[in-house]
Specification:
It is found in: Membrane. By secondary structure, the chain is an all-alpha fold. The protein contains four helices and no strands. The N and C termini lie far apart (about 115 Å).
């Protein structure tokens, strides 16, 4: 009797199984990149360049303009003339 050890017969993975395996692998890499992007601080170049320049006082202190009256709200005089 020969009691040799042979590997069990495993069927070849199908196309969909391969697609699922690689998709899960790429998804895991994407998640790791997202976690690293959140945890690793990046230097902000635009803030460093904005500090030496002069503050824009005219643009910063400008108040927003009042909203224009809407089209459905007419002055009372115009409504009285049409009666």
């Amino acid at each position: 009797m020969y009691w040799g050890f042979s590997p069990p017969e495993v069927p070849e993975p199908t196309f969909l199984e391969n697609l699922l395996q690689y998709g899960l692998f790429l998804g895991a890499i994407f998640q790791l990149l997202c976690v690293l992007a959140i945890t690793v601080p990046m230097p902000k170049a635009h803030e460093a360049e904005a500090e030496p320049s002069e503050p824009r006082s005219a643009e910063v202190t400008r108040k927003p303009k009042a909203a224009a009256p809407s089209a459905n709200k007419r002055p009372k005089e115009v409504a009285k003339k049409r009666r």
